[in-house]
TrEMBL record:
<dbReference type="InterPro" id="IPR052922">
    <property type="entry name" value="Cytidylate_Kinase-2"/>
</dbReference>
<protein>
    <submittedName>
        <fullName>Topology modulation protein</fullName>
    </submittedName>
</protein>
<dbReference type="InterPro" id="IPR027417">
    <property type="entry name" value="P-loop_NTPase"/>
</dbReference>
Length: 177
């Protein structure tokens, strides 16, 4: 491959594996990484007031990997990214991953960012923004958005993965396997 990605944004629906892939790329290519959710969520799931400036400070670096989410910073990330990796997995795959992750985090009471833990599972019935409902409701939003990016962000290499094995193939091709 003729280009070496150094500023990578990882896109995908909730539960598609953005964070898992971003961490993997960080380790494999020795790229700085910050989980964007850790910058966004303050205690009690309240958005942190320094979120935008924290993201801008991180992406000012020469190389990095970060998840491409949160409308408030998507433009800034794209302006600096050289590569957008798009996890466009089938809905049953991403929803299955999201369900397993949510159950594991809730049952294990795993602390996430700034002391937050997943809410009780029963809130799926009462909270319209419960992560599982959110994931299902927003599952197709990127399918119209990302293909248009090539027209508006010409410097950006966009790589679409529709299966996990596509990621493995891509990593081997660029020497990362």
């Amino acid at each position: 491959m003729t280009w070496e990605p150094r500023r990578i944004a990882v896109a995908g629906t909730t539960g598609s594996g953005k964070t898992t892939l971003a961490r993997r790329l960080s380790r494999r290519f020795d790229l700085p990484y910050v989980e964007i959710d850790s910058l966004y969520h303050g205690p009690g799931w309240v958005p942190r007031p320094t979120f935008v400036s924290d993201v801008e400070q991180f992406i000012a670096g020469d190389s990095w990997v970060i998840e491409w989410q949160y409308r408030a910073v998507r433009g800034q990330i794209l302006a600096r990214a050289d590569t957008l990796l798009w996890l466009d997995l089938p809905t049953p795959v991403s929803m299955g991953q999201l369900t397993r992750r949510t159950l594991r985090r809730r049952v294990g009471r795993i602390e996430l960012w700034n002391g937050n833990i997943e809410p009780p599972l029963c809130t799926i019935f009462t909270d319209p923004d419960h992560i599982l409902r959110w994931g299902f409701r927003t599952r197709n939003k990127l399918r119209d958005t990302i293909p248009e990016l090539g027209l508006h962000v010409p410097h950006l290499h966009i790589v679409r993965f529709t299966r996990h094995r596509d990621v493995e193939t891509w990593l081997r091709r660029i020497g990362g396997a």
